[in-house]
Amino acid sequence: MASIRALVLNCTLKRSPAPSSSEVLGREVLDALADQGVEGDLVRVVDHDVRFGVSTDEGDGDGWPDIRTRLLAARILVIATPIWLGQPSSVCKMVLERLDAELSETDEQGRLLTYGKVGAVAVVGNEDGAHHTIGQVQQALNEVGFTCPAAAATYWVGEALHKTDYRDAGPKPDTTGRTTSALALNSAHLARLLAEQPYPPPDTRHAATGPRPESG
């Protein structure tokens, strides 16, 4: 059985050691993955000097290359993000923009380095918008080469205008626990399948090559 590692990128706006509900849910995902024999780590992105950009290294002390090294060593990537104004956090969007660079990074057979990696999402918030946020993040991950398995998302949202965070919500809802377990089970299963049977190299007669043009 293939050895599988996971990486959770916590896209909270809060630097450590401030408490983070996204981190709580992200670590619950890691615990569920551990039940499936998957080891993993969590990185709080704002604790690193990640620059805005769409390259693998923006230079001048950019913190993304170190995170990217850990990402490439993992088979499962989980994006954990809060909801702000019904949207993924700005940190989450920055991470997705940095992942855009992977469209130009290929192996010796012409496959994206992200091919064969599994993408999943964990969302917390005190307002509606979880499905919208999950849809945005999953589509972006798929577009840059990740494969999203069935039920590859877990979330918790409180009542609109409510002040309770997930980390303070007391007994966690069974629905969130079930979706977290399903995320871990299906992500580990798919990651092992893709490790044992990788995607085929692209048909170079028809495949588009090179980075997409910048939009602004």
Characterization of this structure:
- This protein has 216 residues and is α/β, with parallel strands linked by helices.
- It has one domain: Rossmann fold.
- Helices cover 33% and strands 17% of the residues.
- It is built from 5 helices and 6 strands, in the order E-H-E-H-E-E-H-E-H-E-H.
- The chain has helices spanning 21-35, 64-73, 90-99, 130-143, 174-196, and strands at residues 5-10, 39-44, 76-84, 87-88, 118-125, 153-157.
- Strands 1, 2, 3, 4, 5 and 6 form a 6-stranded mixed sheet that branches.
- Helix 4 links the parallel strand 5 (118-125) and strand 6.
- The longest helix is centred in the C-terminal third of the chain and has 23 residues, at 174-196.
- The relative contact order is 0.18.
- Pfam families: FMN_red (PF03358).
